[in-house]
Design goal:
With about 280 residues, the chain is of the alpha/beta class. The chain is built from six helices and twelve strands. The radius of gyration is 23 Å and the shape is flat.
């Protein structure tokens, strides 16, 4: 591919990756980002067959488990630990860079080298985070397609993120990339003809499926606080996604709700990094 240069400048020849060859290209733009050039390519994506089915599913988003999804019969829990570890690595390295840069003089060679290394690291870690988000959303969409889901209800965790529970918890919540994940899910589901509906998730993870009594949970395993009930043993996020589905479809929590008989635990399939960030 060739990009025309300015006056008296030679044209710029760029070798496209294999996955873009043979695809209709609509727009190409060379953009300066941080300390390097990025090539933005807009392509025409092929038309996808719409999902044929009337099933409904619900997603309980989380920071430890990025997606807990169920259609009432089966459930899948997609881990978000890799995403959280990348955010921790980003915080740790940025802290190191900022301390090192603060000890240098403006305009010095040492300062320029540190700034270049910082920007290389940020470009690399941001791409890795975005890649993991794409992998999580793609796996969730495939799960819906395989089960003929046409409507997906996703919990809105705004009330959880607004709580002040200490500096460490507040930092995790501020870096929780749920907004980006929801936009990716909405975009990918829409291409398959699946509708994504945002609903209030308050009370869904703590409401007992057996007796509908609310109990504040602290661990990953659900435990009902009602002494007359004693329900326990289910994954808390699976109870939450089941509660979102029940609340969205029936408008109330159903007493004696049957949880999914099959729960699959999954990690996002990501490509390994070929070289270190710094």
């Amino acid at each position: 591919m060739c990009l025309s240069g300015s006056r008296n400048q030679k044209e710029l020849r760029i070798k496209l990756p294999v996955r873009l060859r043979g695809i209709e290209i609509r727009h190409v733009q060379l953009v300066w980002h941080r300390n390097q050039y990025w090539l933005h390519v807009v392509v025409e994506k092929p038309f996808l067959t719409k999902v044929q089915g009337g099933n409904k599913a619900a997603i309980d988003p989380g920071e430890v488990h990025a997606v807990a999804m169920t259609d009432g019969n089966e459930a899948v829990v997609i881990s978000g630990r890799l995403l959280r570890s990348l955010h921790r690595l980003r915080n740790k390295k940025l802290r190191w860079f900022q301390r090192a840069i603060s000890r240098t003089k403006k305009g010095s060679r040492r300062r320029r080298k540190l700034l270049d290394a910082k920007y290389r690291f940020l470009n690399n870690i941001d791409r890795r985070i975005e890649h993991v988000l794409h992998a999580i959303s793609a796996e969730a969409v495939r799960w819906c397609i395989d089960r003929g889901v046409s409507i997906v209800y996703v919990g809105d965790p705004s009330s959880v993120r607004e709580k002040n529970c200490g500096s460490k918890h507040n930092q995790r919540m501020s870096q929780w990339t749920f907004g980006k994940l929801r936009r990716l899910l909405e975009y990918k589901l829409k291409r398959q003809g699946i509708k994504l509906i945002s609903v209030d998730e308050r009370g869904t993870a703590g409401t007992c499926p057996a007796c509908t009594v609310y109990t504040k949970q602290s661990g990953r395993t659900y435990k009902c606080g009602n002494k007359d009930c004693g329900f326990k043993g289910a994954h808390r996020d699976v109870v939450g996604s089941s509660g979102i589905l029940d609340k969205s479809v029936n408008k109330v929590f159903t007493k004696g709700r049957v949880l999914p008989s099959k729960v699959q635990y999954s990690r996002p399939m990501v490509l390994a990094s070929k070289k270190k960030a710094v």
